[in-house]
Amino acid sequence: MRYNFKQKLFRLLLERGYSKEKIINIFEFLGGILFLPNDLELMFRDDIKENIGGDEIMTKELTNLYQAGKSEGKKERDVEIAEMMLKNNEDIEKIMKYTQLSKEKI
What's the pTM? Predict the structure, then answer.
């Protein structure tokens, strides 16, 4: 529901001709009130970037991406660690323990 609200609000502000600065200010305010889970925050960022028409700077400003980006970066690093461990013939159980990845992801 919060995701849909943020998405509709962004579209409405663009349609009404609000400047990027005003839109960013509105979303900075809403960021503390309408915090989305990381997966939805990433989805919102991608939606702005690909479908709604926001540029790269705007997508960073309009989303609570510090935590989402941090989480995404950790997942990517865990995959890299798992790949290195696999190359060194480490046991799958050990890889799961140190990366917190599922057996299927490894």
Answer: 0.48
With 0-12 / 13-18 / 19 or more C-beta atoms within 10 angstroms meaning exposed / middle / buried, residue 36 is buried
Q: Please choose, from the candidates 72, 74, 69, 62, the residue with its C-alpha nearest in 3D space to the C-alpha of residue 3.
A: 62
Q: What residues does each domain of the chain span?
A: 2-63, 69-99
Of 48, 90, 86, 88, the residue nearest 65 (C-alpha): 48
Measured between alpha carbons, how far is 47 from 68 in angstroms, rounded to an integer?
15
Report the percent of the chain where pLDDT is more than 90: 20
- pLDDT tens for 54-77 read 566 555 556 665 455 666 678 888
